[in-house]
Specification:
- This protein is an alpha/beta fold.
- Helix 2 packs antiparallel against helix 4 (75-90) and helix 3 (62-70) runs antiparallel to helix 4 (75-90).
- The protein is 27% helix and 26% strand.
- The protein folds into 2 domains: 2-37 and 97-193, Metallo-dependent phosphatases (Purple Acid Phosphatase, chain A, domain 2), CATH 3.60.21; 45-93, no CATH class.
- The chain has helices at residues 13-25, 40-53, 62-70, 75-90, 124-129, and strands spanning 2-6, 31-34, 94-96, 104-108, 111-116, 132-135, 142-146, 149-153, 165-169, 176-181, 187-193.
Length: 211
């Protein structure tokens, strides 16, 4: 999996939109996860969806949009409608970690990764059950190894380096590649978690939106 993560934006919506666009269009990630505790990314996604399909871009209104756009439409107009709906659905890859103390769970290279806004909300069960712990609340990017576990943060989002944007990729022939990007999508630093560590202990998932 190729996952893009973005640090807290400090209410800089334009920077957040730029970072999300860079991860989708230049870094070619499969998903983008915002590590803030606010609804900033939800607002970005809502704005983009409105620009793509117009008023009421919700999934439940798809049929209504189709009826309005396609009943008397030409073949090319129908193709345009389908393209816009596909673009809207692509926005589903943009998500936010659950509000504290919630967390998101991912699997990288056969190991469990826990993603949260603040690492202070991690408890013993989280740490015992995971090999990679990714958090948002930090000033600068960090990759810190503690025994068999690795703590990773992109740091807070900024338009100047370090920008608070990172890509984690486990399709690199073993291990997890970590690339830190600037706001234009250029890799400015890299690290790698080598080998495969077997997760031990019990993992507790809590909070709405945990997966």
């Amino acid at each position: 999996m190729r996952l893009g993560v973005i640090g807290p934006c400090q209410d800089d919506i334009l920077a957040l939109a730029k970072a999300a666009q860079v991860l989708l269009d230049r870094a070619n990630v499969e998903r983008v996860l915002y590590l803030g505790k606010d609804d900033a990314l939800d607002r970005v996604v809502a704005s983009w969806a409105h620009e793509i399909v117009g008023e009421n871009p919700s999934e439940s209104a798809t049929f209504e949009r189709a009826a309005r756009a396609c009943v008397n439409a030409s073949a090319s107009e129908i193709e345009d409608f389908v393209g816009s709906e596909r673009a809207r659905r692509r926005l589903r890859v943009l998500t936010t970690v659950p509000a504290p103390p919630g967390r998101t769970i991912e699997l990288f290279d056969g190991r469990i990764a826990v993603l949260v806004y603040d690492k202070a909300t991690l408890d013993e069960d989280d740490i015992a059950g995971a090999s990679v712990l990714i958090f948002g609340r930090a000033d600068k990017p960090v990759v810190h190894r503690v025994g068999s576990r690795t703590f990773v943060t992109p740091g807070r989002l900024s338009v100047s380096p370090p920008a608070g944007i990172a890509v984690l990729d486990d399709d690199v022939g073993g291990g997890i590649q970590i690339d830190f990007l600037d706001i234009e999508g250029v890799v400015v630093a890299s690290d790698k978690i080598e080998g495969r560590v077997r997760a031990t202990g019990k993992l507790r998932v809590q909070g709405p939106g945990s997966s």
